[in-house]
Amino acid sequence: MHHRIFFRPLLAGAGLIFALAAQADPALLKSEGPTQPAKVDDGKYTDKDGTPTYRVSDGGKMVDWSSMSGYLRYNASCIVCHGPDGAGSTYAPSLVDALKTDDYATFVGIVAGGKKDVNASEQLVMPAFGDDKNVMCYIDDIYVYLRARSDGAIGRGRPAEHEPKSETFKKNEDACMG
Fold first, then answer.
1. What is the pLDDT of residues 48-99, one digit of tens each?
2. Which homologous superfamily does the CATH classification assign to the domain defined by 3-177?
3. Any signal peptide, and if so, which residues (predicted)?
4. What is the pLDDT of residue 81?
5. Burial state string for 30-43 with b = 16 or more CB within 10 A and e = fewer than 16
6. What's the pTM?
């Protein structure tokens, strides 16, 4: 199952207009942090490889909608095991640290399919969330939020301000959630 399809723009015209605006205003592609967006499509940012990424400004206070959505979804589904802000807990590892080495495909694969690391000293088991729409419909957003945290572009706690949720995001969200 390919989960990125949930976030493909439904309105190509709206995405084209936003993309043209981004070409006219390079500031829309400027972000704080080491990962710079290369493209914006109706409020969704991707890096030079086409991987979902963040846009952060104003000293980490203003974030894109995907980062905000990811923060909210992380706190609804992931915080119980991985602790506040993706920093890890005694129960599960830091996702902020994991994303320093794990790429997007690895992250999605683990979230969707789960993971077991069992040895003599510990038993780490990540359940599979591939059938959980509350996670998979927002997997790109959760990744973007954690990527921004891992890069140090977003600090701990709730971002102070965010870009608005686009109409395309709303339509994709409705389609995915059913």
1. 999 999 999 888 889 999 999 999 999 999 999 999 999 999 889 999 999 9
2. Cytochrome c-like domain (1.10.760.10)
3. 1-24
4. 94
5. ebbbebebeebbbb
6. 0.82
